[in-house]
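Handout, section B. The chain below has 274 residues.
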Amino acid sequence: ANGSPTITDAGRVVTDRKDTDVTAKLQLDWRVNDDTLVYAGFNRGMKAGGYGVSSDALVFVEDLEYGKEVLHAYEMGIKTTLFDNKVRFNAAAFYYDYRDYQAFVFAGLSNIVINRDAEVYGGEIEIMAQPAEGVDLIFGVSFLDATVKDIPGVGDQDMLLAPDLTINFLGRKEWQMSNGGSIAAQIDGVYVDDQTANSINSEGAAIDSYSVWNARLTYQHTKNWEASLYVKNLADETYWTYAFDVSGFFVNNGAWRAYAPPRWVGGSIRYTWE
């Protein structure tokens, strides 16, 4: 049973709501051989409803309540090792069917939640390889088509923080030293496609695509202690991780953006007691 907020004669907001539902999981695994697993599964999940908080006086109290969200998730995939365990290959495809998805929408300076149906189609591939002694390679790619349906005034919209394409890579090389220690060099990076930070896909909520690379050099003297130097955001990429569309409130300033850190260099020393 869901109760609605009411205003008492003292001006207080009284809330009363209760959400009940059933969650479930079913998964079937098929061990094709010692190196390959094929699986398919279904999950039903639920996220309870609640109340938003108004940051200004432009949102009515009754608009701050939102209902529960129910997700039916279907997934199938494969996990396998190849070439005498030198390569591990994982792949999956999935479909998410949201009932009353909790969509975030900006109203003035308030971030309110509304319930709309949504669906997500996606897939991902991950490859982990050790082509030579001391060499580790990881490559991953994911695809998404995520839509929130029937947003008031604009119709179907892209789901927030759901880029169509994401690619990640890691390469690591380790050299053994004559004193029993080792030196390892690593570089890793990620590419993230365009995305939006609002269920209304306005220009002010857009997050542009970006690529970020990191590097690390580690010296391990014994298994007890090691020292590292690292550089994050190696190319000093300027990008933002979130954007707030406030064009409806500040006409001359359509967006507030949360920028990611610039390039920064650091180091660490670790000692492990046994």
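Note. The CA atoms of residues 214 and 232 lie 5 Å apart. Compare this with the example in section A.
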